[in-house]
Amino acid sequence: MSFESLWADESAIGRNPDTGGYTRGGWSPTEREATHWFLDQCAARGLTVESDGIGNLIAWWGASDGPGVVTGSHLDSVIDGGAFDGPLGVVSALAAVDQLRAEGFEPGVPIGIGAFVEEEGSRFGMPCLGSRVAAGVLSAEKALQLKDRAGVGLGEALEDAGLDPARVGPSPLLRRMGTFVELHVEQGRGLTAPVGVASSIWPHGRFRFTFGGEANHAGTTLMEDRHDPMLTYAMTALAANKQARLAGARATFGRLSVEPNGTNAVPSQVTAWLDARAADTATLESLLAAIIKQATERAERDGTTLEVTPESVSPVVDFPAGLRDRLVNVLDGAPVLPTGAGHDAGVFSDAGIPTAMLFVRNPTGISHSPAEYAELDDCLAGVDALAAVLKDLAK
Ligand code: HGY
Ligand code: MN
Ligand code: MN
């Protein structure tokens, strides 16, 4: 099948007709539909699929069952996300294998296509959940304590998807992952050529800010008598924005939960999730310290309380220079650039697996939005680049 027809099939799955966006939380019906589409494509190509307890998949082309070169990405999405973030890597991998087969290439080592679950953490709040558990950096015990916003536990979600929570844990799949190369849509405006190669992933983390206050009447409570956690949150959000600008970093409060969430009552509690990122660990740590300091000072003024809980922290990832430069070579000098977005490739690299990433140009740089986009010509250039890289690594 051509890339275009593969893409037309896959990107039709779960698209919201009103927003054009996708909400494919891990093990949700639309994410499962996309996963089953992927499995059908693997079966149609005679690929041998291996899966692990949490639902990560690698579909193998090649006779031996020894280590090989794995590519692929994720099929889940953020809430109302774009079509490309994740699926472009999976669809491009299928198209690249088709292309290599069509030209008669026989891999010297097996080539695997991976689909890793809950990379966005949009359902259970833990980014790269599938790859972290597979790599053993998140224990099965901790993972199975996670609940989604409806209170459904990970174990129950796995059972609903026909998986066995008792099999969750470090993945046998990684024993065959000799090298991992992930193709991904670029999520900024840094790439001006059709295809680029990743140098590094910024360190980043998610931190839950719980602001405690005093519920009261919106109409009768004097302003000076209030202990309003919404005020402390608002000042913290402003401080985070200012501190990130000063540090050349990123700080986002994109998720909020208000108790009791009434129109005519001062809230008793506001919970806000901070996504913070920076080019290096020291800057990230000082950014966080500055935000927490200002939030704490404001809480004292407002007579409110503050509790900050790290939910996930991802260290800086510097992809191995030798493999990076080998890809640049194969691609006749493709540009090299860092990314502020996290990826399963970062988890696998951290776990000691030789890992690289290819980026496909995103003309607007917009991502985690229905407006996310990549030109067809650039996507086709990405497939050609991935095919050339796989051919070089698996010869
Ligand atoms: O949020 C991220 O950095 C990535 O898109 N999972
Ligand atoms: Mn993403
Ligand atoms: Mn992604």
Could you characterize what this model shows?
This protein is an alpha/beta fold and 395 residues long. It has two domains: 3-202 and 316-393, Zn peptidases (Aminopeptidase); 204-314, Alpha-Beta Plaits, CATH 3.30.70. Helices cover 34% and strands 23% of the residues. The chain contains eleven helices and 15 strands. The strands form three sheets. Strands 1, 2, 3, 4, 5, 6, 13, 14 and 15 form a nine-stranded mixed β-sheet that branches. α1 (3-10) packs antiparallel against α3, α3 (87-102) packs across α11 and α7 packs antiparallel against α8 (281-302). The radius of gyration is 22 Å and the shape is globular. It binds (2S)-amino(hydroxy)ethanoic acid (HGY) and manganese (II) ion (2 copies). Residues 119-120, 127, 341-342 line the site of (2S)-amino(hydroxy)ethanoic acid (HGY).
Strand content: 15-25%
Looking at the structure, the CATH topology of the largest domain is Aminopeptidase
Largest sheet: 9 strands, mixed
What best-fitting shape do the alpha-carbon axes yield? globular
Give the quaternary arrangement of the chains.
Answer: single chain
Low-confidence stretches: none
- What's the alpha carbon Rg, rounded to whole Å? 22 Å
Structural class: alpha/beta
CATH architecture of the largest domain: 3-Layer(aba) Sandwich
What is the CATH level 1 assignment of the largest domain? Alpha Beta
Number of helices: 11
CATH superfamily of the largest domain: Zn peptidases
Q: Report the bound ligands by name, code or SMILES.
A: (2S)-amino(hydroxy)ethanoic acid, manganese (II) ion
